[in-house]
Structures are given as C-alpha cells and as structure tokens.
Fold this sequence. Notes:
Blueprint: H1 3-26, E1 29-34, E2 37-42, E3 50-55, E4 60-65, E5 70-78, H2 84-88, H3 92-96, E6 102-103, E7 105-108, E8 114-118, E9 128-136, E10 142-150, E11 159-165, E12 177-182, E13 186-187, E14 191-195, E15 204-205, E16 210-211, E17 216-220, E18 253-256, E19 269-275, E20 281-288, H4 298-309, E21 322-323, E22 331-335, H5 338-346, E23 362-366
Parallel strand pairs: 17-18, 20-21
Antiparallel strand pairs: 1-2, 3-4, 4-8, 5-6, 5-9, 7-8, 9-10, 11-12, 11-22, 12-17, 13-16, 14-15, 14-19, 19-20, 22-23
Amino acid sequence: xxxxxxxxxxxxxxxxxxxxxxxxxxxxxxxxxxxxxxxxxxxxxxxxxxxxxxxxxxxxxxxxxxxxxxxxxxxxxxxxxxxxxxxxxxxxxxxxxxxxxxxxxxxxxxxxxxxxxxxxxxxxxxxxxxxxxxxxxxxxxxxxxxxxxxxxxxxxxxxxxxxxxxxxxxxxxxxxxxxxxxxxxxxxxxxxxxxxxxxxxxxxxxxxxxxxxxxxxxxxxxxxxxxxxxxxxxxxxxxxxxxxxxxxxxxxxxxxxxxxxxxxxxxxxxxxxxxxxxxxxxxxxxxxxxxxxxxxxxxxxxxxxxxxxxxxxxxxxxxxxxxxxxxxxxxxxxxxxxxxxxxxxxxxxxxxxxxxxxxxxxxxxxxxxxxxxxxx
Length: 376
C-alpha cells in the first residue's frame, strides 16, 4: 500500500477516534447492540438536579427540580437518627428502616418541576430533619437526594439588630458579635444572621428558644475561650465562668456561631437578619467609610440592594450607610431608639410592619460604655 495512503488512513482513524470521544462526552446519546450492529440512540440522558428547596410550613418541604420528575420514594427522619455514612451516601433503604421514619405525601405543580413533599405529622419547631428521596425523569434518569431541614417556626418572634461589634482584640477572647432585640413574644428558630462580606454560607441560623418582648440576644460570631454555651433555656448565666469568653452577659441570651475564624467586615459590610424559611429580610444594617462611592464586593452590593427593596434602608449606596470611620477593635456600632420601638409595640403598633431605618439611628460607641446585653 502506498505510504501516503497509509498515512492518510492512520490520520483518519486518529481523528475519528478523537471525535467519537468528544461527541460521547458532549452529546446526549446512548447505544445498543443489535444483530445489524451498533446503533446510536439520541435523547436526554442527564439526571434531574435540585435547583432549590424551602420549608413551606410545619408539614411540607417544597423542592424545585431542573426538569419534570416523578418522586419514586420519599421519607422524612429525625437528623439524629442518621449516621455519618448516610450523610456521605444518602440511603433510602437505611432511612426507611428508622423507627421514626415518615413516608412522604407527594404533590406536583402543573409543570412537574416543583414538588411538595408533606407528612401528616407536624414537625417540631427548630428540630433537625432529613428528607431522603429519589426522583426520576421521563427517560428513566434518576437522582437520589438527602435534604437537611429545620422544623418550621409558625411563632417567629419579631427581632431587630441593636448592636454590631465587628472588632476582635488580638490575644483575647473579645470577639465579633451581633446583638438582637426582641419586640414580640415567640420563638427564635429559623431566624438567620449573616455578614454579606463573609457570604451567606457562613451565616448562622438561630436555634429554637422561647423569648419575650424586651429580651436581648448576643450572637457571638465565633467561638473562643471556654463556656461557649448556647443558652436556649431559662438559664441566661450558663455561658459565664471563671475562664470565659468576653462580651457574655447574664442579662442576655448568649448564642454561639460554629466558627473560629475572623468574621464581619471591619470597615464595610451589610449585616442581615432574615427569615430563613421565606428568605425575606427582617432587618439589615449597612456601614462603610466616608467618601467611598461603591462597595468592594458584589455580595455586599447585592445585600444592600435587597435591604432597599425590602423597605428597610432608603439607599443602597455606601455614601448613605453608617459611617465606620473611627471604628476600632474596642468600639461598637450601637442603635438608638430600640426601647421606643418596643414601647410603641406595647401600645398597639404592629411589629409585623417593616421597620425602616437609616444611618441616623446608629453611632459608634466605646465597648466599655455600651455593655453587651443592654439597649437604648
């Protein structure tokens, strides 16, 4: 055979092989062997994916898929009854064998992409659960999933941000914290606090705890020192000890984020308080140095714009934020007018309305003069 022909055939086979590999990776095809030879089958061979999920009420979880699906099985179990291996590889079989497993009741929207998985048993407020399930699309592709969620809180207390301490004194236990003030009786489960500078994935969802108007919560944004104990019951002195983390108070409920790293922007940030079930903002505070015209991070810009769209803040620009000039590790942002707001609620004002605010309600104070657990 001519050398040129052999070279051409060798080149053709190499190109054909490469093309087949690339096409098999990017094209939705499959194959089957018949008496006549190999046949390519065209179609959708991508598994469905979960785009989002939310807790709808005390009985239901809504899951949004990337395509129309059928749920072939779904069970809900308390998170405490799952094992480490279940977390790594969700197992419907293992979950179904739990004594407290509850079979899910399935319903779909018209498009078949939004699936509501319910149960006849009401979930406990603030308790942790896992939803195990399997979804299949019309061509037989399947997705096994495990969704952690918290029992819905239908008695959420109305809370606002009353103090922000972004500083950390090196070599001490004086760490960052966010103070919250309670306007109405209820439960804290599902309230979430996060720093836009750090990102929502580093946020903290408050545990279940009964509170009453006038209560103060100190959310310590990192654990350092001993006695970092969540005070979810009636004892508000549990976090105090001979070797303790600073900024604790027997007058306030101390809670601790599971974090040991620096957090909260020291010069600019948006601190957000939201309802983690609905995703709606409840309160937010914007702060930045004087003179800057734009936020450093897109995440901070987005949080500032969301605070404005929710009616909490009047402008998303850093020029209208609380000025952080003069802020140090031993100084804090304090809010004025909290007690007046509480008095208005007690006199009949609705605490369900959005409480609009501006930089005028905030000032920088010395941490020694504004002790954690007290508001004004």
